[in-house]
Amino acid sequence: MADGNNIFAPRFNINDVKVHEKKRAYKNFFAIDEYQVSYKHFDGTTSPILHREIFERDHDASVVMPYDPKTDEVCLIEQFRPGCLKDKISPWLLEVVAGIIDDGETPEDAALRELKEEAGIEIEKKDLHFCMGEYPSPGGISEYVNIYIGICDLSHLDNHGGLESESEDIRVFKVKFEDAYNQIATGLIRNSATIIALMYLKLNYEKFHK
User: Fold this and answer.
1) Model confidence pTM above 0.85
2) Strand-strand pairing, 92-95 and 170-176
3) Who contacts 88 (Cβ-Cβ below 8 Å, separation ≥6)?
4) Rounded to whole angstroms, how far apart are CA atoms 59 and 170?
5) What is the distance between the alpha carbons of residues 174 and 186, in angstroms, rounded to a whole number?
6) Considering only CA atoms, which of 122, 120, 144 is closest in space to residue 133?
7) Shared domain check, 66 and 91
8) Do 112 and 43 share a structural domain?
């Protein structure tokens, strides 16, 4: 049980959940697991057994926003996202580099690999700055996302990236940080990890300019 004196500490933990049944209902590029689960209520009672479907990648993810403090520029990418086919603007989203963590990789390893694959940028692990981790949609997706800022030189940035073997077609470009940050308000940047990375840099700007 978490510390009850800390208002932010969870009241319960995994021991207050009972998984009555779990089975894999679907597996292709992604997977869906079906759960029969019950959990403790805040009033001390227990919920009925609930049927829930969870979207599974079977891997967590790493996100990295390349940032050049010398020029105050960030690297963004644009690519097609089938989950955004209903989007009123476009199913091509402006994002930062991201990808799943492969077996045997650390979150940092995945961030460095994806940075090279999607944007053609190579940096060392010491140039990765961890921002935070987050669950993008925990009501139905198990994925946990590690968010980094990668300090790099953007003076020789390519304009195209991605792996043909993964059917990636990625536009790569750089912009002034403040210009990118302002696109949150316009709605042109609406990818959650990208918004978090830009807001983190905004809140911690001085740390990167000492």
Assistant:
1) yes
2) unpaired
3) none
4) 22
5) 18
6) 144
7) yes
8) no
- Those residues of the chain that have pLDDT short of 70 are 1-4
Q: Is 108 helix (H, G, I), strand (E, B) or coil?
A: helix
Count of Cβ atoms closer than 10 Å to residue 62 Cβ = 28
DSSP label at residue 159 = S
Distance CA 209, CA 75 (A): 18
Residues 50 and 114 reside in one and the same domain: no
How would you classify the pairing of strands 61-68 and 145-151?
A: parallel
Is 5 within a domain? Answer: no
What is the domain range of residue 183?
61-209
Q: What is the dihedral of CA 18, 24, 26, 29, to 10 degrees?
A: 100
Q: Mind telling me the catalytic residues? A: 166
> How does pLDDT run across 116-169, given as a tens digit for each residue?
999 999 999 999 999 999 999 999 999 999 999 999 999 999 888 777 777 779
Within a 10 A sphere around the Cβ of 55, how many other Cβ atoms? 14
